[in-house]
Amino acid sequence: MQGSVQKKNGRYYLPNGKQKWEKSGTNKKEAERRLVSRVNQINRGEYVELKEIDFAGFADRWFRDYADGAVKLSTLAAYRSVVNNHLTPYFAGVRLTGVSLEYVQGYVTEKREAEYAPKTIRNHIVILKEMFKHAVRWGYLSFNPALEVDLPRIRHREMDFLIPDEIRLFLETSEEVQPDHYGLFLTAVMTGMRRGELLAMKWRNVDWQRRQYFVKEAYYRGRFDQPKSERSMRPIDLAKTVCERLMDLYEAQKDIKRRGDTTIWT
User: Fold this and answer.
1) What residues pair up with 132 in beta bridges, in sequence order?
2) Fewest CB within 10 A of the end CB: N or C in the chain?
């Protein structure tokens, strides 16, 4: 392959063999770097002509062939929300081979100007990097255009915690106003378990002698799934007051035949 980058209608194009041209954004230096890399690949016998697909089509394949079976249900739902509501509309009609670093940087700028939180923007780019990583593996891209994007800085924010007096007031009020939920609130305060882990608590995972609960599942949108990470599958020490409250609930649920498969907060 010979030739140089060409400019047309404000965009640069790379020669792609067989009298074809490939879009490379509006940055001439980036287009030239891609051309040099392409020539080196050809000289080493490593160049393979990329498959053609638009962003929306690749997103569908990425979910079908990777994400649907590789990530937790809650993570998958978050991925779909970001891709459907943000990434696909921005890259609408764009061929995957036409996505450049400059194009991705434009997405960051657009979200920043729309006053999205830096952490939110970073989360979007994490998904985009993962998608493009698979695009490279599957022969749709020769490189990942999201790897070197400049991201907004996250400012450190102090966490706001309840102080002991506030916790006591909360528990006292909940016992008076919502006595049926008091055990749940007490366990949450005393263990620090996540909401999904709390709602998935089962009697079979309680060790009364050791006063421990073993986190093995999480509840999300009507389904039980693995916790957030492998480290989340852990034993949690239970205070005496929590054990006593759980035992009261256990005794109150004696009419349930299969306690081992029953959630505690039924």
Assistant:
1) none
2) C
- Which fold would CATH assign to domain 55-137? DNA polymerase; domain 1 (1.10.150)
The Cα–Cα gap between 15 and 227 comes to 49
DSSP letter at 154? P
Q: Sheet holding 206-207: strands in order across?
A: 206-207, 212-214, 235-237
The angle subtended at Cα 254 by Cα 251 and Cα 259, nearest 5°, is 100
Of residues 26, 104, 103, the one with CA closest to residue 6:
26
What is the Cα–Cα distance from 14 to 36, expressed in whole angstroms? 10
Domain extent listing, the chain: 6-43, 55-137, 164-261
